[in-house]
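Components:
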Amino acid sequence: MTDSDPKGPPRFTRRALLRVGATTAAAAATVASGLLLLDRDTGLPRHDLVKVRDHRVALPAGGTQMAIVRGKSPTENVKRAVEALGGMGVFIRPGEKVVIKPNVGWNRLPEQAADTNPELVTAVVRMAFAAGASKVWVTDAPVNNADTCFDRSGIRAAVGAAGGTLVMPTANNFREAEIGGELLRVGDVLYPFVEADKVINLPIAKQHSLCGATLSMKNWYGMLGGHRVRLHQDIQKSIVELALMAKPTLSILDATRVLLANGPSGGSVDDVKQLDTIAASVDEVALDAFGATLLGKNPAELGYIAMAEKAMHGQADFRRLKLVEISA
Amino acid sequence: MRYLLFAVLASVPLALAGWIGWRGHAGSTQQSASAASTAPSPADPDAALLALFEGEPASAKLKEKVALYDAQTLFDYVDGAAPTFIQRGFRKLGAAEMSAGGGELTCDVYDMAAPANAEAIFTAERSSSAKSAPGWPEAITGSKSFVFRRGRYYVKLTAFDAKAEAALPELARALRGRMP
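Structure:
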């Protein structure tokens, strides 16, 4: 309210100015709140957050918990590893939808060992179908150009050869999901991880200059869209938070060829060592601890392994699991 | 009533300005070569970086525009390797797919801002088994790979087939010849 002379212009009093200020602030807050409901990148209304469900299954009582297979054929190695855990039928029931997550992060050839071996992708897609899967998606959000990565790595062709469905990381293929971590509360997740009944993690083992090693838990970075810098502010913790959300049905570590230096992207074949090894488990922590040894590292060097174990995500001392080692 | 109307009208541009600023902060700083090269200048390090790719060095052709990455966006190209560069003074990366000798390769030129920084990253990334290129101690040749440093630049060439691999040394020498 102002004191005003009906014959003259209105005169603002201090009280009136305070009132206008308070009302303006309240209105600005209301409008800003409404705008916050819009997506930061697209400006479109935000859709509801979805949750990624727990995809784990119980292994047969007394059965093998981890299998390590060494041999010249990646396809035979992965078949033997999964058979040692009870067969793909333990993990996939007829009619279920399955998503397989290889590492396709880089514009690299298979021999450069920055991406999962394409032969393994073909094998695992076929094994999922053989177990009765009604749909098998293969997806990843690469660091480099996605089309180039899927082509150069041979994984686009590998998926096609096995009759799987490739899901590219285009904007409409992400769903805003609750991650539930302290660092990562919300993220855009590729839709198969929301819609699938079962999730198979299929990473490659390699050196990583920032976190020491890229193994199974680190592979979940590729289920997210958006700029990657935010994932690296506290990389060890981010890895664990994503692993705690993903909760895969089965993890299969590709150590056919391992990149021992200049990871995660590599480039020189001279940095690659042929190990012809596959390991499989439902315990990502154990798998990563084993993978660390392949890279010449003590698992205790990798902070995220200890953090994940503390968060009850698995067993870092993989030798304490019921373990079988097979040489073909 | 008129005060309420005034307040609402005043609040809209305020809130919009804040929101636009917030969205702008989230945006990428990645630039394309064409955008960055609109005002080339010898004193402009971005222009100097982009000029290295121009004019088909050693007959190598660009398959796409050169992408520039700064310290914020480098993660979008090299992911977790970014801090290794940033800690050593990284300024900007120019990266492109190229064709040479009938094959395909990637050419990554890191502007490390100073020769000492380029030497530091060259040493950090050099594996124990790496072989120096003949007569060129600041270059490493490997299978499908050729890496060298020159002045403030650190260059990684990666081939995707035998034809491109055979073309790497000549392309490396052509790039070196363009660097001060």
